[in-house]
Amino acid sequence: MIEFRSVSKRFPDGTLAVEDFSLVLPSHKTTVLVGSSGSGKTTLLRMINRMVDPTSGSVEIDGEDIATLPPVKLRRGIGYVMQNSGLLPHRTVVDNVATVPLLRGTPKRQARADALAMLDTVGLDRSLADRYPSQLSGGQQQRVGVARGLAVDPNILLMDEPFGAVDPIVRAELQQELVRLQKELDKTVVFVTHDIEEAFLLGDQIVILSEGGRIAQVGSPAELLANPADDFVASFVGADRGRRALHVERHGNEDVVVDSDGRLAGVLRSEGVR
Amino acid sequence: MTWVLANLGLIWARTLDHVVLSLPPIVLCFVVAVPLGWLARRYRLSRGIILTGAGLLYAVPSLPLIFVLPAVIGTSLLSPVNVIIALTLYGIALMVRVVSDGLDSVDADVRQSASAMGYSTWSRFWQVELPLAGPVLLAGMRVVAVSTVSLVTVGAVIGVQSLGSLFTDGFQRGIQAEIIAGLVATVGLALLFDGALVLAGRVLMPWTRRITAAKPSAPVEVSAA
């Protein structure tokens, strides 16, 4: 369990990125922080592995204030996946995946063997193991990034817009892959995105952030859609328009679902028919 | 040509002298410039001082520097150490800026992700930043190597023997072939050093080689899409 207790962050240049933020992120669940730029979502994520230290307040992992832990050791125990993969360009794929185990002192042979197995886990062919990152496609690089984040089998996986820079088809593929992995591995995932669709797909708990890390609403996707706390949340999740504002029309013997643009979304069936 | 054939032993001996004088400055300047370049990049204040200092150092003419050094560091006027130290200083003057620029060229995302992985500042420098600055450092070292080999000849004027001695001797005695032999051997040695550095770069930085090798396939992919 990760807990933010009245956390604020003021950067040296005076901007207040996060103000009095409190939240509990349950273990073995995916919490998605959603917000537009300037909402402090990345700052919040980076507080969990002490890439950013709060100006006031505290962050606890399983009841332990992480300000008391040495940052380097803390980071080696937390998976981190970022946009543009952040892979080391001068290391091969397998060495990139083995980075953190090697830093933790795992013998080289063991670390490489584990890394190869991890490539299987994230759906990468082992024939790519000896390539350099620049020789991979964007989607493959992100998979390597995920494999690297998972290499030490961390309890916590931090993901900072990991699929933001790949094309929509590959992104959808990677999202499905993450859903599958999460079912298998059951990590505490903290995921940052500005894409509400992505948040709905991946999140057990979704945190909608407005300016300065203020929580607009926390809830499951269903809760956010059904009961948006205010107009900001409603417009953010799009409950009032387009593909999310659905109504039923009767056509002959069938109930068809129509969105707010009048486009046919599908046919409504009761559970039993399926 | 007859002079050359009659004096092969002399040319070889001067070539060896030349190598002995060139290698230490090339190696030393790298060893000194790396921490200085790091320091220059690290703090705003040190950046101004170090980079300006290095620039000024390079503006000092070589011959006076070689003459003045004995007085400053207490070596004898004819000691080869003077030449080695002077050339090391020139190498540092050039490389400090190169190291600082090379470290600057490392992608901020990569640096950040290395920290997030749990690299300490120290290990990140040696294992991530310095290797990734490698191509820039190599380019700088190639200039340093060639310019050092060429500058070693100046030492001949104060009597430190090198291939430059073939120029001074050839001028004094009016032997044109000796001057030309010294010139050709100096250029040849510079090319040899340069080639060795390029080779070392290929061995030490295999990722840069693979990237160039992968490039021709890129346009094919684009046209296919």
TrEMBL record, chain A:
Residues 2-237 form the ABC transporter domain. The keyword Nucleotide-binding applies. Its EC number is 7.6.2.9. GO terms for molecular function: ABC-type quaternary ammonium compound transporting activity; ATP binding; ATP hydrolysis activity. The keyword Metal-binding does not apply. SUPFAM superfamilies: P-loop containing nucleoside triphosphate hydrolases (SSF52540). InterPro entries: AAA+_ATPase, ABC_osmolyte_uptake_ATP-bind, ABC_transporter-like_ATP-bd, ABC_transporter-like_CS, P-loop_NTPase. Keywords: ATP-binding, Nucleotide-binding, Transport. This is ABC-type quaternary amine transporter.
TrEMBL record, chain B:
The keyword Transmembrane applies. PROSITE patterns: ABC_TM1. Pfam families: BPD_transp_1. It comes from the Bacteria. Residues 15-197 form the ABC transmembrane type-1 domain. Its main location: membrane. It is a multi-pass membrane protein. It is found in: Cell membrane; Membrane. Gene3D superfamilies: MetI-like. Belongs to the binding-protein-dependent transport system permease family. This is ABC transporter permease. The lineage of its organism: Bacteria, Bacillati, Actinomycetota, Actinomycetes, Micrococcales.
